[in-house]
Amino acid sequence: MGPVRPWARVYVGCAVLAALLCVAPAPDLPVHLRAVVLLAALYAGCEQIPLPRVLGRARAGTHLAGPRAPEGMGTFFPVLLAGAILLPPSAAALVPLPGALFARGAGRPPWLRRAWRAAQLALAVWTASRTHWALGGRDAVVGPHFPYALLTAGAAVVAFCLTLTALDAGILALAEGVSGSASWSGLFLRSLAPVAVHGLAGLMMAVLWRSPYGPVAALLVLLPMYVSCWVFAQYHRERAAHQATIRALVQAVDIKDGYTRGHSERVGQASMMIARELGMDDERVEVLRFAGILHDVGKLGVPTRLLRKDGPLTPQERRIIELHPEYGHEMVRGIGFLGEARSAILHHHERLDGSGYPYGLVGTQIPEFARVVAVADAFDAMTSTRSYRRARPVPAALEELRRCAGAQFDPAMVRALIHALDRHGWHPAVTADEEHGIVPAPVPPVAGEPAVQRPGGGGA
Questions:
Q1: What are phi and psi of 23, to 5 degrees?
Q2: Share of the chain above pLDDT 90, in %
Q3: Nearest to 292 by CA among 331, 348, 239, 244
Q4: Rounded Cα–Cα distance for residues 173 and 180 (Å)
Q5: Domain boundary residue, one of 220, 249, 276
Q6: Is 381 contained in some domain?
Q7: In sequence order, which residues have a C-beta less than 8 Å from that of residue 300 and are 6 or more positions away?
Q8: What PANTHER family does the record point to (predicted)?
Q9: pLDDT value, residue 145
Q10: Taking 90 as the threshold, does the pLDDT of residue 240 lie above it?
């Protein structure tokens, strides 16, 4: 990690000074000292729990946020928001300081990171508390006017989130040179939902704290929050493992068949567009994206010399290449999370008229996912520059798909792709040839071969 830019250090210094001004005027601190100490200790304890931050708003990649989230929970905000609801602004701003100043995994330079984090949270809590108390939230937490506390707490959450977003945008702009508008764009909306969930928990803590049951009952709110954070973290770990598995397989194919680098990702993108146009639910759309990305993974079992051959293939060479769907299916058969994607990998070269491979399935015998991937595969193959021919314009590729619909491709899938492209356009990554500035002369297709397939026998 490179050094922090001088202006970023000045920015952090200004944030620290502002935080000190917020906590300094605390004449009523002795009255609230017990609550401040309890909440500060509780938040500091949460910072030490080895649970990845999954509901917070860490800005991975910035010089002061670090390349990844620290080991502690870090953004376990219910305690801070409970403090903003229970305490006056200057006292509430003290709550995050011990936890932020002594947090685990601060990174380098640790003193600057800890000072920044402490100042950022102190300013956010102060703003939230100021907003809450200005709207009369102090009296709304207890008594017959409790429902009004939802409004005041909601305003406090928005103020808290706005402060964090504004401070993050500034540090992104100064530490990484990102433009102000780009820094701000999307940060607030991405942060608001998870912080709002924490805000509800903070309000529950505050209500119980002020109730006859006292602070001990308020602590019980944290248990379900902790469990939900843990479950969410497990889900993200599993999802990350899935992505890593797919990425490794795709990279292996790209290394073996350099001419089609980027093809898998583009087929996944086109498959998603078709799936959404067909109205599939989000879970099936994601699995179909996996199918598109991994459709050619079986090429790992095909000799490299055949994949990179520029001229026509012999019948024996074609038969070898046509084994790649079966190779791919065998490779992914044990990967449970792929679900329907496995059938797409096996059958994406089947044709509606029964002339495809490996099993010559006809019509609806071909799985739906395979019919989607077949269209996406052919579309990207035609619109990408390859070693044996130039890329076709998108309109020409779509016209070819229309011509082959009903015999080779499912007409419904072709129509869905056309409608999706009309709505969103097509912005694919460059091919390997284009990356190196190579635009080879066209090579005539093999006699009798469909126009949308390469000499290697596949759409890619």
A1: -90, -15
A2: 30
A3: 348
A4: 6
A5: 220
A6: yes
A7: 249, 252, 253, 256, 327, 331
A8: CYCLIC DI-GMP PHOSPHODIESTERASE TM_0186-RELATED, LIPOPROTEIN
A9: 62
A10: no
Task: Based on the fold, state whether residues 404 and 268 are members of the same structural domain.
Answer: yes
201 in a domain, yes or no? Answer: yes
In the 3-class helix/strand/coil scheme, how is 143-192 assigned residue by residue? CCCCCHHHHHHHHHHHHHHHHHHHHHHHHHHHHHCCCHHHHHCCHHHHHH
pLDDT classification of 205: cutoffs 50, 70, 90: confident
Residues 6 or more apart whose Cβ sits within 8 Å of residue 444: none
Residue 312, domain CATH: 1.10.3210.10
Separation between Cα atoms, residue 14 and residue 19, nearest integer Å: 9
Domain span at residue 138?
6-220
pLDDT confidence of residue 120: 92
Residues 181 and 254 in one domain: no
In a domain, residue 225? The reply is: no
Angle of helix 222-256 relative to helix 187-210, nearest 10 degrees? 160
pLDDT higher than threshold 50 for residue 454: no
**CA 392 to CA 249: how far, in whole Å?**
28
The reply to whether 196 and 294 lie within a common domain is: no
177 and 80 within one domain:
yes
| 300 falls within a domain | yes
Torsions phi, psi for 278 (to 5 deg): -80, -5
Cis peptide before 30 (omega within 30 of 0): no
Predicted confidence (pLDDT) at residue 420 exceeds the cutoff of 90: yes
Same domain, 158 and 263: no
Q: Which residues contact 239 (CB under 8 A, 6 or more apart)?
A: none
Predicted local confidence at residue 53, as pLDDT: 43
* Nearest CA among 288, 262, 457 for reference residue 370: 288
Instruction: Tell me, yes or no, whether 47 and 165 share the same domain.
Output: yes
Q: What is the pLDDT of residue 412?
A: 95
The tokens describing 128, both together, are: 């939230």
Residue 276 has pLDDT above 60, yes or no: yes
